[in-house]
Amino acid sequence: MAGIFYSCQTAESVQRDAYYVNGRDLYIQHCQNCHGEKGEGLGELTPPLTDSIFMKANKSQLACIIKNGFSTPLTIHGKVYEGKMPDFNMADIDIAQLIVYITNGFGHKQGMYTNEQVAKDLKDCK
């Protein structure tokens, strides 16, 4: 039965699904304690990952935020978050998988994000 399911998917959707599953595991390991099981955030301390407008507008910055951390005040849903996010020394592939998960979970549908895109975005970090 699984063979029939996968034969109906494109290679890109199979890759996106694999990234999503691996990204979910990385999210649980590194992010869930602060951002919540459903990306809801942690009260006044940690912003939610459920704001589709923010996630789309800042998608090219996500790799930089994950890799280098973040300490600039941030406004989401009209609420200012001033906490510091630690840096995570992850490989580009892990960052890509994590980004696929957070930009396709929590109500988002932003598609694929590759490790090549991570490398490009990391070169442009501000």
Helix content bin: 40-55%
Structural class from helices and strands? mainly alpha
The overall pLDDT, averaged over residues, is: 90
Side by side, the strands of the main sheet go 1-2
**Which stretches are poorly predicted, pLDDT < 50 over at least 5 residues?**
none
**CATH hierarchy: architecture:** Orthogonal Bundle
Explain the overall architecture.
This protein is mainly α and 126 residues long. It has one domain (25-123): Cytochrome Bc1 Complex, Chain D, domain 2 (Orthogonal Bundle), CATH 1.10.760.10. It is built from seven helices and two strands. Helix 2 (11-30) packs across helix 6 and helix 5 (62-68) packs across helix 6. The protein is globular, with a radius of gyration of 15 Å.
Topology at a glance:
Elements: H1 2-7, H2 11-30, H3 32-35, H4 52-57, H5 62-68, E1 74-76, E2 79-81, H6 92-104, H7 115-123
Antiparallel strand pairs: 1-2
Name some characteristics of this structure.
two-stranded antiparallel ribbon, 5% strand, 126 residues, 2 strands
Quick recap:
With 126 residues, this protein is mainly α.
